[in-house]
Amino acid sequence: QLACPLDLGCHSVHYFCMATINVTAVDISPNDCPLEAPLAIDMTFNSDRKIENAAWEITYLVDYTNKRHLIEIGKTEPTTYAAGDNKFNFSVPEIDVTGIKPSVLANVGLLLLVLKSGEEEVVQISMVTQVNKKEGKLYRTIFSPIE
To answer: What is the pTM of this model?
Structure first.
């Protein structure tokens, strides 16, 4: 038997235990900036139940002619989110795209925020990211998933 990561007392079939997450606000900064610039995400979300051992994994997915590049940006320390309104904050000093050709990066990608409870995925939030070349540099625009 498996213990429910949400401490609901259920066993074995975790998808019955997973919380429902509703994103209510997202602030991404800076935006409309160089691709490698710092990244800060401030998000407010609502959960229908308590989530223990919760950590966010942040990655950037570039898909170019059937070749996927997954860039690991970072992850948060495990915490507990209460049922109701919660906040998530994350920042990195830069996005490291070393070793990926600019022609591959100048495309539409996805900024992926995956909330896990232990090893179980609770929710994935995908933010479409447009990368364009301007004046010889790559610039990113990240679109909010709620607009």
So the answer is: 0.85
